[in-house]
Design goal:
Elements (H helix, E strand, L loop, with lengths): L2 H95 L5 H17 L4 H137 L5 H10 L4
Helix pairs in contact: 1-3, 2-3
Length: 279
């Protein structure tokens, strides 16, 4: 095989290797593109996960606050019930002492006796008797008034209790609703986390393929480098041979011209000077 044929054979092998390299590079590029696309999806999912976590945490804080408000309301309800019981006990005690006459009748008698004391001449004995009746009437009137106040207080306390129970129910319903919403967001977040893990694994798989393709290119690149060096070396040798052949041919032509006594070119003259050729 001639030198040129060997160079052609090496160039053919070089082309085959470069084609293999291009194939590996194309596969590596494809793997890198898929990896990058998946990593972008992973980043987007991570951002969604953070957003969902923040939303869930805010709802959980709201649940804690609603629990606190509900518990405080329950404490108020217990206190209100205790107050109602105490008031009812007082009502029961006073009811047992309540006079048979109405408050209006008692007040009328009280005013009548007072008027009698103030306007009618009385003996000391009669006056003392009337004063004692006034005291008794005053006591009975006070019992009736206190009883009315306690009954009114009981009505107000029951109304306050009902309002607190409504408030507690509202807190509980809102708490339940918020807790359910938080749970739904938490479940969505967990799904996103699972999805992101799968995408990350897939992205890592394509990154592994990318590295494998690059690793496969290394021996090919090394062979390409060696082939190029060998081709360059052989081409240089071929050029030298060609130059030597041309120089030998020129020398022969120059000698023949000298023999024939023909005029030499500047190049031929320099060649004579270098070689020291005579006619």
């Amino acid at each position: 095989m001639s030198g040129q044929e060997k160079i052609q054979d090496l160039n053919r092998k070089l082309s085959e290797l470069e084609e293999q390299k291009r194939e590996f590079m194309a596969k590596a590029k494809e793997s890198a593109e898929k990896r990058n696309k998946l990593n972008e999806q992973f980043k987007a999912l991570q951002a969604e996960i953070v957003e969902l976590k923040n939303e869930r945490d805010k709802l959980n804080d709201k649940v804690k606050e609603l629990k606190k408000q509900r518990d405080e309301t329950k404490t108020e309800i217990r206190e209100k019930i205790d107050e109602i019981k105490k008031t009812n006990q007082e009502i029961n005690v006073l009811t047992a002492k309540k006079p048979s006459k109405s408050l209006q009748m008692l007040q009328k008698e009280f005013e009548s006796i007072e008027w009698k004391i103030q306007t009618t001449p009385l003996s000391l004995k009669d006056e003392n008797k009337l004063v004692e009746q006034v005291k008794q009437l005053q006591t009975q009137i006070n019992i009736c008034k206190k009883l009315e106040q306690l009954k009114q207080k009981s009505v107000e306390l029951k109304a306050e209790l009902k309002a607190l129970q409504t408030k507690s129910k509202m807190f509980h319903e809102k708490l339940t609703e918020t807790a359910e919403e938080s749970q739904k967001i938490h479940e969505r977040m967990l799904k996103k986390i699972d999805e992101s893990k799968k995408i990350k694994m897939e992205a890592d798989g394509f990154h592994k393929l990318f590295l494998q393709e690059k690793e496969k290119m290394k021996p090919i690149q090394e062979k390409i480098k060696m082939l190029k060096e060998e081709i360059q070396k052989r081409e240089m040798n071929e050029r030298k041979k060609t130059e030597e052949n041309l120089r030998e041919k020129l020398e022969r032509q120059t000698r023949e011209k000298l023999k024939r006594g023909e005029k030499l070119t500047w190049e031929e003259f320099q060649l004579i000077a270098e070689k020291g050729m005579g006619a």
